[in-house]
C-alpha cells in the first residue's frame, strides 16, 4: 500500500432523528437530534465520520472543505486537518465550522485504518483494551419512573457510573434538582458513582450551595456547574466543593483546553467538535501535561478507539441520545459489558461500523457532495 493513495470523493448527509421522548437539560430542550454523516472515499474504500449539529455544517463540508481534502494523500490525516483549519480561517472556526472539520477528520482516520486493514485502535496504538463508560441521560423532562427505568437499564448492563441532568429551568428549581438526585442515588445504590451535569445553569454561589448538598448524596462529578465560558467561576466552584468539577465539551480548538485545564479536575473533550480525532488526542496530551485525566464527551462510537489509545483516560460518556442513534444507523455498534466496551475486539477495520442504508435513508433530510 502506497502512502500516496489519494482521497477521491467526499459527501455529507444530514440525518434528523426524533428523540424517543422529550428531552431537556438545565438550559435547552429538544425533540430531535441532527447528525451530519460524512463519507470519504479512496478507490473502493470508504471512511465514515460524523458530528452532531446544525444542518448548515454539511454545506461547510462540501463547499469549503471538499476541495481542500480531495486529492490529498489519504494517509496524511494531520496534514489534511491543518489544511482544513487554514481553509476556514475567515469563516469563523468555532462552532459548526469546527464540527465540519471534525467530522471530516474522523472520516479520514476511519478511511486510513480501513485502507490498512486495521481497527483504528491498532493504528493509533492501544494504551488499554477496555474503555470504561458512564451511563448518561436523566433528562429534566423525565418522570421519576422514566429516570428509574433508565438507571436500572444501565445497571442491568453492568454500569456502575451514572449521570443525570440538573439545573432545571436555568437553575430555578434547586430543590427539585436535589430531590431528583436523591432518587437517583436510591435507584443506583450506595456503591455506585453518581454524577450530575448542570449544563452551566447555575450562578457561582448557587453552584457552591448546590454542590455542597450534592456531596452529602455521594455525588463525585459536577459537570458545568456554571457556564464553561466562566473559567473564574469554574475554578471558584472547584475550590469550594468536594465533587470533581468537569467541563470542556464546547472546546473547539487546543488553546481552549489550555485555558480551561487549570480550572477543572477532569477535562472533557468532544472529537466531533474540537477538530476530530487528531485534536482530541492532542487534548489528551495537554490534559496529561497538567496532571489531569480526559473524559470523552458523547458520540461514543467516534471516541471509543481513540479513548483506548489514551493513557490518562478517565471514561467515556455513554449518552442515551447518541447511543440510540448510532445503534439505529450502524451495523457493528459496540455493546457494553460490565460498564466497558472493547473497541477493535471484532477485528473489523477502522471504527468497525457499516451504515444501515435503509435507516440512513429514513432519517435523511438532505445530501451534499459527490458519490
Textual characterization of the structure:
Helix 1 (56-69) crosses helix 3 (96-116) and helix 2 runs antiparallel to helix 3. 52% of the residues are buried. The mean pLDDT is 96. Strand 1 (9-24) and strand 2 form a beta hairpin. The protein has helices at 56-69, 77-87, 96-116, 120-124, 144-156, 168-171, 174-188, 204-216, 231-240, 254-260, 276-289, 300-308, 320-329, 357-363; strands spanning 9-24, 29-42, 45-52, 131-137, 161-165, 193-197, 219-223, 244-247, 266-269, 293-296, 313-319, 330-331, 340-341, 354-355, 364-369. The longest helix has 21 residues, at 96-116. The radius of gyration is 20 Å and the shape is globular. It contains 14 helices and 15 strands. Strands 4-5-6-7-8-9-10-11 form an 8-stranded parallel β-barrel, surrounded by 7 helices. It has a 4-stranded antiparallel sheet with strand order 3-2-1-15, with helices on both faces. It has 371 residues and is α/β, with parallel strands linked by helices. The two termini are 23 Å apart.
Short summary:
The chain is an alpha/beta fold and 371 residues long. 41% of the residues lie in helices and 25% in strands. It is globular.
Amino acid at each position: 500500500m502506497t502512502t500516496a493513495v489519494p482521497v477521491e470523493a467526499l459527501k455529507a448527509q444530514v440525518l434528523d432523528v426524533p428523540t424517543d421522548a422529550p428531552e431537556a437539560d438545565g438550559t435547552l430542550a429538544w425533540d430531535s437530534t441532527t447528525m451530519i454523516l460524512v463519507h470519504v472515499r479512496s478507490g473502493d474504500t470508504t471512511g465514515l465520520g460524523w458530528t452532531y449539529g446544525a444542518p448548515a455544517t454539511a454545506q461547510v463540508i462540501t463547499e469549503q472543505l471538499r476541495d481542500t481534502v480531495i486529492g490529498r494523500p489519504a494517509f496524511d490525516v494531520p496534514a489534511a486537518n491543518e489544511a482544513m483549519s487554514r481553509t476556514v480561517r475567515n469563516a469563523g472556526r468555532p462552532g459548526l465550522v469546527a464540527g465540519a472539520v471534525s467530522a471530516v477528520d474522523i472520516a479520514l482516520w476511519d478511511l486510513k485504518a480501513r485502507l490498512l486493514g486495521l481497527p483504528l485502535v491498532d493504528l493509533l496504538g492501544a494504551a488499554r483494551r477496555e474503555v470504561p463508560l458512564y451511563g448518561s441521560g436523566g433528562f429534566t423532562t423525565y418522570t421519576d419512573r422514566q429516570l428509574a427505568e433508565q438507571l436500572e437499564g444501565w445497571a442491568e448492563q453492568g454500569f456502575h457510573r451514572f449521570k443525570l441532568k440538573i439545573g432545571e429551568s436555568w437553575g430555578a428549581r434547586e430543590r427539585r434538582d436535589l430531590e431528583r438526585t436523591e432518587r437517583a442515588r436510591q435507584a443506583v445504590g450506595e456503591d455506585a458513582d453518581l454524577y450530575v451535569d448542570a449544563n452551566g445553569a447555575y450562578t457561582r454561589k448557587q453552584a457552591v450551595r448546590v454542590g455542597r448538598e450534592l456531596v452529602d448524596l455521594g455525588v463525585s462529578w459536577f459537570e458545568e456547574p456554571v457556564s464553561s465560558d466562566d473559567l473564574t467561576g469554574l475554578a471558584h466552584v472547584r475550590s469550594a466543593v468536594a465533587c470533581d468539577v468537569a467541563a470542556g465539551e464546547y472546546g473547539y480548538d487546543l488553546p481552549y483546553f489550555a485555558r480551561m485545564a487549570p480550572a477543572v479536575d477532569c477535562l472533557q473533550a468532544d472529537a466531533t467538535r474540537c477538530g476530530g480525532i487528531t485534536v482530541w488526542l492532542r487534548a489528551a496530551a495537554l490534559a496529561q501535561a497538567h496532571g489531569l485525566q480526559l473524559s470523552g464527551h458523547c458520540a461514543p462510537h467516534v471516541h471509543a478507539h481513540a479513548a483506548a489509545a489514551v493513557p490518562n483516560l478517565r471514561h467515556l460518556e455513554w449518552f442515551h441520545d447518541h447511543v440510540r442513534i448510532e445503534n439505529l444507523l450502524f451495523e457493528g455498534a459496540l455493546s457494553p459489558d460490565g460498564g466497558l466496551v472493547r473497541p477493535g475486539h471484532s477485528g473489523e477495520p477502522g471504527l468497525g461500523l457499516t451504515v444501515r442504508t435503509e435507516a440512513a435513508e429514513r432519517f435523511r433530510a438532505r445530501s451534499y457532495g459527490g458519490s
